[in-house]
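Researcher: Re-running this chain for the archive, since the previous output was lost when a drive failed. Same request as before.
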Amino acid sequence: MDATEARRLHELDRTVLWHAFSQMSEYDGLIIERAEGSWLTDIHGKKYFDGASSLWCNLFGHRVAQIDRALIEQLGQVAHVTNLGMSHPVSIRLAERLTQIAGRGLEHVFFAGDGASAVEVAMKLAFQYWRQCDRPEPGRTKFLALGDAYHGDTIGTVSVSGVSLFQKTFAPLLFEVLRGPCPDDYRRPQAMSSSEACAHYLEAYEAILIEHHRNIAAVIAESCIQGAAGFVMQPKGFLAGLAKLCKKYNVLLILDEIAVGMGRTGRMFAFEHEEIAAGGVIEPDFLCLGKGLTGGYIAMSATLSSRRIWEAFLGDYTESKTFFHGHTYGGNPLAAAAGLAVLDLLEGHLGDGRFSLEAIRANSECFAKVLEPLDDSPIIGQVRRLGMMAALVLVASKETKSPFEGNKRMGKRICEQAISRGLWLRPLGDVIPILPAVTTPPQELDWLGETLSRIFQGRDFTQSPQF
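Model: Regenerated structure tokens:
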């Protein structure tokens, strides 16, 4: 691309295109023209390692031959049909596959376009369920959410989220939510072990359920990792314990696996790690999937629900039990074709095996090793990781775990250093997520680790505001 056109595009990108979560008065982002594997190429021909998997969704990297072929074949049939009164074979097959893989009584699928919409579907289904189930309890109008949760940017999902930065402006529009403590295994109550903290958090949630369970439609939780909260890792056993409490008090459970599902953690669903640790089966009433569902190719999300929920919506039209909700592109055949290809890759039915869940788990061990040296940095309080998801927690003091002053914008400055070295990362405040493609080869993971080490090595970030 010639320099004149590149300058024109940069100007339009700053003045016409409104970017998400960006202060446009200072915006100056990359413009990516093409990509392959883990590498992005901008309009100037410069390459960057995609260390954030294009906001956590590009599961296998870019230009995956098997997904490309699936989309091309589907384009030869039809690009889109509505799911209002009709469907397409590939969308039906994807729904079937998802229910087979999920099991645990999750027998029904509602497709939407993005993660927030999938969560909104689950919330509305839960609310309506209590009004028309066999024994209606219309007083169940509340949701119980986790402290510092993030579930999306619609009014409903912002309401159940707990990140104050995203809520403050829209507070007058939000509905009241019951909220428990953030189950943080890093900044846990003083002098508590991980297991003690787990019990402490569960006691807090049980106290809320004892008092309010007859008014609670559902508990909503991210599985194992609370993403936008700063990749907060829950203590082992917390999620399994929360699921048991929902059963005990007959409250529906919504698990949000938008970011952590579809193989990213080395398991198809992140809550499987809890099942293995706790030695029991977790049976949510709703499971929300997105991001990696189509490998980062086309927007699609899914809300899986149990038969118990489904049956409460069956009846004569005049009973108004219908779920009056839907999206124009829900169940889009192109997205469904990509989704089926992703499942085939994860289950080892396509490709050379390096896309399978087993291969991802093996690659996760390599990923862990390249991150180990970062533990020595005086400003990295914790290296958080589950499978091929990781994050660096920046702190002013490793001993007290105290954060930097917000105006230092330490996370942003370090990511700028990374970008100058050809590594694209995007911070969450002073937490830096690192999510390479799950198929990233060892030599590229080594490069990633070495690049991060060079950024942190030998620098006293606490004393100087400049690099």
